[in-house]
Amino acid sequence: MNSLSQRNSGLVQRRSEAIRSAAVDKDRESGGEEEEARRGEEEEDDKGDSKETRLTLMEEVLLLGLKDREGYTSFWNDCISSGLRGCMLVELALRGRLQLEACGVRRRSLLSRKVICKSDAPTGDVLLDEALKHVKETQPPETVQSWIELLSGETWNPLKLHYQLRNVRERLAKNLVEKGVLTTEKQNFLLFDMTTHPLTNGSIKQRLVKKVQESVLEKWVNDPHRMDKRILSLILLAHSSDVLENAFAPLQDDQYDLGMKRVHTLLELEPEKESAKPNVNELMWAVVAAFTK
């Protein structure tokens, strides 16, 4: 009996050691995966912008719209204000903070579905966090179209004027000043003085313009669902903000024609159909639908 109990206890001990060893190996493997993922993120940072100069969709659209030397957007552009609000919603969706409510059995249209808060974790960007706070605290929820109008201040309801995000272009320009992309100057326009933000770091804007150009030229994939979601959003939102033309202006005539032709193929897509496909950002297509309705 004693020898049998000793064999059993030895077997239990060996099993326990095997389980502990397997757990250690598993921890090592998961730790290795985390380390590999972290290294991958660092490599991505090295390939493109550093964390200090990584731009949000709003900042990229504004940078495309700013005149390099003058430091302000065109006085004739009346689309960029609402376009920047659309950028905020899409940026928050890309960061996993916002989403559209479920479409339901009858599959309601994109513009009839409400925007809901998926996560209220801070983004680190003051404008984004301000918009996220509005969406989270608003009951009942609002649609994408309503949020673009509310954040732009384009509402006839005086009780909802507090949703307006003020001085958005100026605040975004100051973000770009802090990131070393722009500088701040005062210019006199006869009857008034205006703060302007001329370009100081041309390489960052050139990299942005090149990214937009390559997406519809050298890196064109002829399928929006194979495109990077962020670059697809940038192209569509830059067009809605009437600044996309600035990215193609430096191109040769044949490249310009080809690039614009491919952009038009994206603009002709039906948001309702595209949003029904797998692995898409529904809220981005809802914003596109709001600007093209």
Task: Provide the fold topology.
Elements: H1 2-47, H2 57-65, H3 80-94, E1 98-100, E2 115-117, H4 126-137, H5 144-152, H6 168-178, E3 185-189, E4 192-196, H7 202-216, H8 229-240, H9 244-248, H10 253-267, H11 271-275, H12 282-292
Antiparallel strand pairs: 1-2, 3-4
The largest sheet, given as strand count, sense and whether it forms a barrel, is: 2 strands, antiparallel
Structural class, from helix and strand content?
mainly alpha
List the strand order in the largest sheet.
Answer: 1-2
Measured between the Cα atoms of the first and last residue, the distance is 85 Å
Strand content is: 5-15%
Shape: globular
Q: Roughly how much helix do the residues carry, as a percent range?
A: 55-70%
Measured on Cα atoms, how large is the radius of gyration? 25 Å
Question: Which runs of at least 5 residues are low in confidence (pLDDT < 50)?
Answer: 1-12, 22-49
| Number of helices, counting only DSSP H or I runs of 4 residues or more | 12
Q: Topology as H/E string?
A: HHHEEHHHEEHHHHHH
The chain-level mean pLDDT equals 85
How many individual β-strands?
4
Describe the structure.
This protein has helices at 2-47, 57-65, 80-94, 126-137, 144-152, 168-178, 202-216, 229-240, 244-248, 253-267, 271-275, 282-292; strands spanning 98-100, 115-117, 185-189, 192-196. The chain contains 12 helices and 4 strands. Strand 3 (185-189) and strand 4 form a beta hairpin. The N and C termini lie far apart (85 Å). It has 293 residues and is mainly alpha-helical. Residues 1-12 and 22-49 have low confidence and may be disordered. It is globular, with a radius of gyration of 25 Å. It has a two-stranded antiparallel ribbon. Strands 3-4 form a two-stranded antiparallel ribbon.
